[in-house]
């Protein structure tokens, strides 16, 4: 009896009745719930991330560039329901850096619209676009929505790395800096916020990609333009199986 009573007391002390009856629900504020809801809504298709650079025409109204992309996104969203575009557009004095996250179909339509604009007979204000990298089937987004930021004040850099580094080293620095910038925005910009706007060069100047790197990448022939990329995308893949090959019969002589 004494052993049984001692055991019951030990069990009661280790596993209190309240802990057995009350469900353990993680606590979080309303903002956390909204962000989690947003993440779940953005996981309904295979996700891809595309890095673009391009030149812009002189004396171009920077707001018109952001408005153009917003109109393209809204038009595509009518046919690609719930395939939202997230990312960031940096508008420099003479060039742009654009990071896009969405489905393959949506990214395809964005490039196709750009190509249509180039071929419509009038001078398009976005020129010399190059696709630097595409990350396929990424597990999660770096951005919760799409933002555009105008770099109004020229940022001064001490040296031009494009003169001393190889193309591979320039690309590595480019991708490293863009990811650092994306992580900074992920931590500082909340869901539904307008983003840093046109003050990014003041808030995080050390994270901005030097414009000479963007110009260097635009001139490089190592990267595809939208037309070449879409041609490759539309090209059928022919795979010949071993069972389809008619091998010559071995000679008896």
UniProtKB/TrEMBL annotation:
InterPro entries reported in the protein's UniProt record: TEX47-like (IPR055308)
Pfam family, one: TEX47
Protein name, entry field: TEX47 protein
Lineage summary: Eukaryota, Metazoa, Chordata, Craniata, Vertebrata
